[in-house]
Amino acid sequence: MPLGSCVSTNARESIGPLRDHEASTGVNETPLRRQLGLTDCILLVIGTMVGTGIFLTTGSVAGVLHSPYLVLVAWLLGGFFALAGALTYAELSACFPQSGGHYVFMREAYGPFWGFLDGWLSFVVSFPCFLAFMAMGLSEYAGFFCPALTAEHAVIRFSLAGAAVTIHGGHLTALAVITVLTVLNCLGLRAGRNVQNTLTVLKIGCLVFLPALIFASGKGSWSHFAFPEDVFSGGLFPAMAGALIGVTFAYSGWDASTYMAGEVRRPRQSVPRSLAVGTVLVTALYLIFNLALLYQVPASRMSVTGNVTQEAAEGVLGRAGAGITSGIVLVTILGAINATIMIGPRVYYAMATDGLFFRRLSRVHPRFKVPAMAIIAQGVWTCVIIMTGTFAGLLTYTVFALLVLSTLTAAAVYVLRVRRPEIARPYRVWGYPVIPAIYCVGSLSILANMLIQSPLQSAASLVAMGLAVPVYRYWRSRWMPGT
């Protein structure tokens, strides 16, 4: 049977009642509670988007573009690119207001294999590796306040199968953060939502507080915005294209609320609005934040500064600025970790509900009404990845594949308009077909650049996608014996 073919009769019988209900109402009935409102969804989008990228990317962008005006243009273009993706996904989420995000969209547009491929990579690599990466990064910033929490301080050394194993403070910090937030999210959506909303409000406050402090101090200079003479020496287009890669990743996460659609009240209205509003607000915050950094630190110096945000804060507050910067980044990372712990398991839950993953992951806790087994599975796998230290390599060798799937997800708008015109579309992407094309072409440009710059890593990503084929056939044989 072709990988992308539709499900068989047996499969249709198992999920038929659900699809019939979706056809009549557009909103699936699930054992999950619909407890998220529009504000919750907006804060989830903002909390997922605002990570360490905003604090670490400006220096590299300035090093490529040289001009403060072009740095701001790059962040504005990155916001517009993210908004194009958000508006595109908004139509998909309005069509299929179910938990699972990309997995659901790929399944409906291209067939079960492509949905499985997206979900499989999400479980094996994407969400757990990003969680591991952020948790280990958090331990480094926590080390400013307590050096014992970092990787430089060994706690336990032992031999395993002849190999020396060291457990250091960074491991323990990362494991503790993942474990605590995983348990908290198992205790109900309300608990996870409240923590997420609190951390996101603190994030927003930090991104407003530091610029306000910088401008109020008057220690910066508007002369930093003088236009340099050599800005076009290397060619504007290649320089901007290179800068936008980092900027684009700093904007990632704008699709967060689509994963939680099965737990959103009025999802067909709230999820699309949250994608647009959240992305616009983050773009505004990023522009203000970068304007303040450029006011405090000249663009010419940013390229040789390891941490532009810390230098800007120290320029206003002295040595205390380093502590404030570390505290801001800690809050930012915690919010991003909690958001990822929330959204990832909804993919595995949707896959398991369709019979394409471990059935236990489809179980909803009878009291707390969350996919607790899926949340725990993600937490356990993340802890394994942290201890093996493989997260950086896994991300490096699969990021190309993840971008391919993201581009295909956006292109699903075109596919579904043609193949399934009868689907109710309470929201149609503004500017169709141009806006989806902007996102797809931009993503393809990033992919082309990665293919040229890192051909071996890109090829490894494609191999990783191919490895999902036998895994899919295994799950399909378990789900529908004889096919």
Descriptive account of the structure:
The chain is 71% helix and 3% strand. The chain has 483 residues and is an all-alpha fold. It has one domain: Amino acid/polyamine transporter I. The chain has a two-stranded antiparallel ribbon with strand order 1-2. A hairpin with a 2-residue loop joins strand 1 (154-160) and strand 2. Helix 8 crosses helix 9 (189-217) and helix 17 (391-419) crosses helix 19 (455-466). The longest helix has 34 residues, at 320-353. The chain is globular and about 65 Å long. The termini are close together.
Helix amount: over 70%
Largest sheet: 2 strands, antiparallel
What's the CATH architecture? Up-down Bundle
Structural class: mainly alpha
Helix count equals: 20
What do we call the CATH homologous superfamily?
Amino acid/polyamine transporter I
Shape descriptor reads globular
Keywords:
2 strands; disordered N terminus; 483 residues; 20 helices
Describe, in short, the structure shown.
The chain has 483 residues and is an all-alpha fold. The protein contains 20 helices and two strands. β1 and β2 (163-168) form a beta hairpin.
Task: Give the helix/strand layout.
Layout: H1 9-25, H2 38-49, H3 53-56, H4 58-65, H5 68-95, H6 102-110, H7 112-142, E1 154-160, E2 163-168, H8 169-186, H9 189-217, H10 236-250, H11 256-259, H12 267-296, H13 299-302, H14 308-317, H15 320-353, H16 372-388, H17 391-419, H18 434-453, H19 455-466, H20 468-479
Antiparallel strand pairs: 1-2
Helix pairs in contact: 2-9, 2-12, 2-15, 4-5, 4-10, 5-10, 5-12, 5-17, 5-18, 6-7, 6-17, 7-8, 7-15, 7-16, 7-17, 8-9, 8-15, 8-16, 9-12, 9-15, 14-15, 15-16, 17-18, 17-19, 18-19
